[in-house]
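Human: We require from you a standard protein entry with sequence in single-letter code and fold as tokens, and nothing else.

Assistant:
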Amino acid sequence: MAEPKSELPECVKDYMRLAIELAKQSPPQPTNFCVGAILVDEAENKTLATGYTLELPGNTHAEQCCLQKFATQHGKSEKDIADLLPTKSAIYTTMEPCGKRLSGNLPCIDRILNTRNGLNGGIKTVYHGVAEPETFVGQNTGRGRLEAAGIQCVHVSGFEQEILKVATAGHPRKEDA
């Protein structure tokens, strides 16, 4: 299980704050979490691409949009970006990447794992603000798959309440029932 790191660099917190702002752009739906994601070159402290839930056509997740936008910037398909990623690539996401999709789309965990086939080893670190609630698909076991593949998973603590408030916008509230 990813342990929170108490002394994270300020840039990590800044990227998580930006991911939260991206998540706020997601159209609230009762069947999706509003999530933001940022693909980063950690060696250069440079944003490579951003994404948020439902930003692109289809039932798209934040990480999916982020990776697809990076691919488009380079004139490639998402499945062909592995060789383009810098050596110290990381993805920041307000909610841990999904390990299962009810829509039939490729889960975000698999999208991240697919980047590992490149020359530079793909995404090395996944920073997340909260674990995926069990609302739609039950327990998310994707983090274990990432860690088994050598991808470091880092919980960025201190943003949980704000992230969950944004993530569940559009969901029925108990007081609404």
In short: The radius of gyration is 15 Å. Helices lie at 10-23, 62-73, 108-114, 142-148, 160-167. The mean pLDDT is 89. The first helix runs from residue 10 to 23.
